[in-house]
Amino acid sequence: MKTCYKCHIKKPLVEFSKHKSNKDGLQRNCKVCVKEYLKVYRATCGVKSTEAVAKWRKLNPERNLELHAEYRKSHKQHISEYASRFRIENPEKMKQRQQDYYAENSERVCVYGKKYREENKEKTKGWARRWWLLNKDKARTYVQNRRAKTRGDKDLLSLGIIKKLYEQQNGLCACCGQELGDNYHLDHIMPLALGGEHSDSNVQLLKARCNLQKGAKHPEVFMRERQATL
């Protein structure tokens, strides 16, 4: 136990932050009192102190980097826990940060990613395989969009289109009306070979057998052929 110099209350040692210069290695004021003091200080001298810190950092860039490195080294677990908690509590902010960073550093990210994949082929191959198994709908869309980019198409499918179509079609094939199951294809209603667009409004989900039978036929021609064989 230790008595706080500010509030004069005896508290457990865990209630005091570390301070190397003191004999017991702890701050003389408890965490609550320090927090309250900092709150008042920031309210009254916040702008002034912020400007002073910014000025010092500008005049001492190397020392500033050293202090940051020392802090990260001595507080690894704390930083990791905080970062993990922040990502969970602020998914939208993290997503926006990632998008902003990629927009400003796209070339750097691509170069680093290519280098990392080359140096860690087995690891990245395993990650890609796990992601593919957990995100089959997105994977199908990625494949379609990659082919569209190769063809030079301007329009791309939205990543959630397969899930949306599956719900709209109630999990049934748009051609035969049977359950899609897991083995289904993303089909262009009007085939690309006949001038159809690679867009959300021109796709549907078909059972693999129906899609292979349809091929690049006009949808009306294909349905007439099906009705003739029934």
What does this structure look like?
By secondary structure, this protein is mostly helical. The chain has three domains: 1-45, no CATH class; 90-132, no CATH class; 140-229, 3-Layer(aba) Sandwich (His-Me finger endonuclease fold). Helices cover 61% and strands 6% of the residues. The chain is built from ten helices and four strands; from the N terminus they run ββααααααααββαα. The strands form two sheets. A two-stranded antiparallel sheet has the order 1-2. It is elongated and about 95 Å long.
Outline the biggest β-sheet: 2 strands, antiparallel
CATH class of the largest domain: Alpha Beta
Mean pLDDT: 88
Q: Termini separation (Å)?
A: 87 Å
Instruction: Catalogue the unreliable spans.
Output: none
Structurally, the number of domains stands at 3
What is the helical fraction, as a range of percent? 55-70%
H-E order = EEHHHHHHHHEEHH
Q: How large is the radius of gyration?
A: 30 Å
Structure class: mainly alpha
What portion of residues belong to β-strands?
A: 5-15%
Record the strand order, biggest sheet: 1-2
Estimate the global geometry from the Cα principal axes: elongated
Question: Which helices and strands occur, and which strands form pairs?
Answer:
Elements: E1 2-3, E2 10-11, H1 31-59, H2 61-74, H3 76-89, H4 91-104, H5 106-119, H6 121-134, H7 136-151, H8 161-168, E3 184-188, E4 203-207, H9 208-214, H10 219-229
Antiparallel strand pairs: 1-2, 3-4
